[in-house]
Each structure stands twice: as structure tokens, then as C-alpha cells.
Write a structure and sequence with these properties.
Elements lengths: L4 H16 L5 H24 L5 E5 L6 H9 L17 E7 L4 E8 L14 H14 L3 E6 L1 H6 L1 H14 L6 E5 L18 H17 L6 E2 L9 E2 L5 E6 L10 H11 L2 H11 L2 H23 L6 H20 L6 H10 L10 H9 L11 H21 L9 H12 L4
Parallel strand pairs: 1-3, 1-4, 4-5, 5-8
Antiparallel strand pairs: 2-3, 6-7, 7-8
């Protein structure tokens, strides 16, 4: 399963009803709805309720493996793969549907875009017009320049073409991720695979990554993994996002998750959910869970710092219940109250079937050692952070970790960052 936008709407209504039924003064109720739950869920509205398909634009020379890369990213056969000849000389739009995951993608494959670029690097008018037409029609969120090691070394004019096209198309040209595909080209007969076990192959891959960085004039790229720079670089640039090496001809693919992570992290928030959950890549969904925990914890800090001693427990419990439900849904559980009840039962709070939203939510505050009090911002944030991280452990690792054991770490994290005087 995955995050169902309709069930998210139902969850939002339950949380609103929880606050509406709280025994608090009307002005406090309005404050809670307008200044607490509203800001907390505004980002979730963009992520889930306003979710849309990501729009990806792939370009490069024929034979770079663009169609294979689409299939590898989607984790299914979604694009026709040509063996020798390009399948078509025209760009193709793939609308890839993932019905069981409430997701779809729009992917434009601009077949053989550079085939007509001559050695002198001049950009033919038809290349410019083709790409301009594609970009105007599809308005992609991000472009992926797919190339092989041979294309990289012999095709500096391709990079120059991208730069010239960007100059002509200006804001219409999206940021670019460079995918160095078919890195097995460097592999000697009988050599070890994957690259992490072959120092010579790893050195060749890193050399190509460094070459791309120099050509793009990105002098200080950041390695995705400090101890494994061959996994790719991220650039500090609004135009060039990064460069990632991949192998996608046969399974098991190599390093596709790194490319997927970079694309997903860069996409607009409204396009991020469908991109991530379509792939069922745990790393991506865990990253979303961690981000949601941090976001909700920051909101909780504002609740705890507000002089609203009766309302803060009700509002906090509503916030925390929503957090648990969302993290459960990121792990492919149903986005419903049964998921929250499952978690609260597992970590030691009596929340059995039939309990209403309010009772389940109240039980969440009892998981940390601060329930029933008017609490400081750092404590409120720490409580919420501890519940979020505990829920992540439960839903993703099937591991029961009580929030009370994480509470001090969460409190210190937010006190040091935002409340140094506490």
C-alpha cells in the first residue's frame, strides 16, 4: 500500500474534530486550528493532497541507455528498450502508472537529441527547436542528461550544447542531473563487480566524475558518501544538480538508488511523494519520515512555548497521532487510525480496537514522560521527536523502541538548537 490522498483527507478531519471536541475556550480552539494544526499540515497538504506526477526529461545520445534507466528508476518495464537502432527519432512521452501505489510519472525521452550535433559544436536549429518544443509543452521539473563513459570523454561538445541551449531557453531550461551510465564499460574481462570491490574500476569511475565536474566548472562537488566518492557528486549550483554513475542493463542494478535519491530530494514537494513511493525504495520513504518528524517537532515546540496549559495536550496529541499515521503510511501501512492503534499497542499503551481518535491521541502523549502538563517548547519538541523516531523504528524495522528512551535525546536536540536558555 501507499499514501492514499482520500484517506489523508479523512485523517485531517479526525484531527480537526479532536481539537473541536476539546474542553477549551473558543479563542484557544481557534488558535490551535489556525496557528498550530494549519501550519503543521500545510506542508503535508502540498505533499499529499496536492500531489501530482513528477515530470522528468531525459536526453542524451542514442545508446546511452535512457529507456533502460527509466525502467530501472520505475522498478518495472515501463519504456521500450531499443537494441541497436533508436526506437524513434522523435521525443516520446511515457505516462507511467503505479495504481497500487497511488502514483504516476510523466517521463519525456528525447531520443538521440545530439545525433545531429557536428564536431565543431554548433547547435543545429532543429536541435534547439525540438528541445524548446519539448520544454514548453511538458515543463519538466528536472532534466536527466544520460551519457556513457565514452560519450563523456569524446563529447565535450554535448556539455557545450547544453550550456548554449540553456542560454537560448533561459528559465525554460530545468536544472540537470548528469547520469554516467554503463560504467561497466571500464570493467576488464574477468574483473570484479561491483565497483566497490574493484579499485581499478572505482578509480576509472571517479576519474570520469571528476572530469564531468571540471567541464561543468563545479570545482568543489560534495560526495554523496564521504567514504565512497564513486557513488556520485552533488553540486552547489542552481543549474547543475549533480553527477551519478549507474549500471542499469541487467539486475541487480548498481547505484540507481543514489540517482533516485538525488532526483527525489530536488523535486518540488508536490511531485515528491508520487516519485518516491512509486519505487518502493525504503531509503527514500524513511527520509520522508525523518523530515516529517522534524517538521512536526518544530511545530510542537511552538505549542509547548505558548501559554495554553489546557489546550497544549489536546493539540499535541492530535499532532502526534497524525505524525504516527503518516510514518506508518510511508512504510506502506494504511493511512488510518488502526495504524495508530497498532503502534500505541505495540509500545505499551492500551489502545485497542474501538477507541476513538481522541483516546488514541491522548495515549500518545502518555508514551513520553511529560503527559498532562503545561510543557516547555523543548520538551514538547522532544516528546514529538521521540514518538516520530519510535514510530519509524516500529514501522520500518519492526522494532519496538519506547519513546521514553529517546525523549532526552529529542529534548536536547531542540533545546540546544532553539532554546539554549532552558
Amino acid at each position: 500500500m501507499a499514501v492514499d490522498p482520500e484517506k489523508f483527507k479523512a485523517l485531517r478531519k479526525k484531527l480537526d474534530r479532536l481539537v473541536e471536541s476539546a474542553p477549551i475556550r473558543e479563542e484557544n480552539r481557534e488558535f490551535a486550528v489556525n496557528n498550530v494544526l494549519g501550519p503543521a499540515f500545510s506542508e503535508m497538504d502540498d505533499l499529499i493532497d496536492d500531489s501530482r506526477p513528477p515530470r522528468l526529461y531525459l536526453f542524451g545520445r542514442s545508446g546511452a541507455g535512457k529507456s533502460s534507466l527509466i525502467n530501472a528508476l520505475a522498478n518495472k518495464d515501463a519504456a521500450e528498450v531499443g537494441s541497436v537502432e533508436p526506437t524513434t527519432v522523435e521525443s516520446e512521452l511515457y505516462h507511467i502508472s503505479f495504481p497500487d501505489r497511488y502514483a504516476s510519472w510523466d517521463v519525456v525521452d528525447s531520443r538521440g537529441l545530439f545525433e545531429s550535433v557536428p564536431p565543431d559544436g554548433d547547435v543545429p536549429a532543429d536541435t534547439v527547436s525540438l528541445m524548446k518544443r519539448d520544454l514548453e509543452e511538458h515543463r519538466p521539473d528536472i532534466a536527466i542528461h544520460v551519457m556513457t563513459p565514452d560519450h563523456v570523454r569524446a563529447g565535450e561538445e554535448d556539455f557545450e550544447t547544453v550550456a548554449r541551449l540553456r542560454g537560448e531557453l533561459d528559465a525554460l531550461f530545468p536544472p540537470v542531473v548528469y547520469c554516467l551510465n554503463k560504467v561497466d564499460t571500464h570493467l576488464s574481462p574477468g574483473g570484479d563487480w561491483p565497483p566497490e570491490t574493484n579499485p581499478s574500476l572505482a578509480g576509472d569511475i571517479k576519474s570520469n566524475l571528476d572530469f564531468v565536474s571540471r567541464v561543468l566548472e563545479e570545482p568543489e562537488p560534495t560526495a554523496f558518501e564521504e567514504n565512497q566518492p564513486l557513488r556520485g557528486y552533488e553540486f552547489d549550483s542552481e543549474e547543475n544538480v549533480g553527477v551519478v554513475p549507474t549500471y542499469v542493463k541487467d539486475e541487480p542494478y548498481w547505484n540507481v538508488e543514489t540517482l533516485s535519491w538525488l532526483i527525489g530530494d530536488f523535486l518540488p514537494i508536490s511531485a515528491r511523494l508520487q516519485f518516491n513511493q512509486a519505487q518502493r525504495r525504503e531509503r527514500l520513504m524513511r527520509k520522508m519520515a525523518r523530515s516529517t518528524t522534524n517538521r512536526f517537532s518544530s511545530i510542537a515546540a511552538g505549542i509547548g512555548a505558548t501559554p495554553m496549559p489546557v489546550a497544549d495536550i489536546v493539540v499535541l496529541s492530535s499532532l502526534q497521532a497524525g505524525l504516527v499515521a503518516l510514518i506508518g503510511s510511508y512504510s506502506c501501512r494504511e493511512l488510518e487510525w488502526a495504524t495508530v492503534q497498532d503502534y500505541t499497542s505495540a509500545v505499551g499503551v492500551s489502545a485497542v480496537g474501538g477507541l476513538g481518535a481522541r483516546e488514541v491521541a491522548r495515549s500518545l502523549v502518555q508514551l513520553a514522560p511529560v503527559g498532562g502538563q503545561a510543557i516547555s517548547g523543548a520538551v514538547a519538541a522532544g516528546t514529538t521527536w521521540a514518538i516520530g523516531r519510535s514510530a519509524e523504528e516500529y514501522f520500518f524495522n519492526d522494532n519496538v523502541v519506547k519513546p521514553s528512551g529517546l525523549f532526552e535525546k529529542g529534548k536536547k536536540r531542540f533545546r540546544d538548537a532553539k532554546f539554549p536558555s532552558l
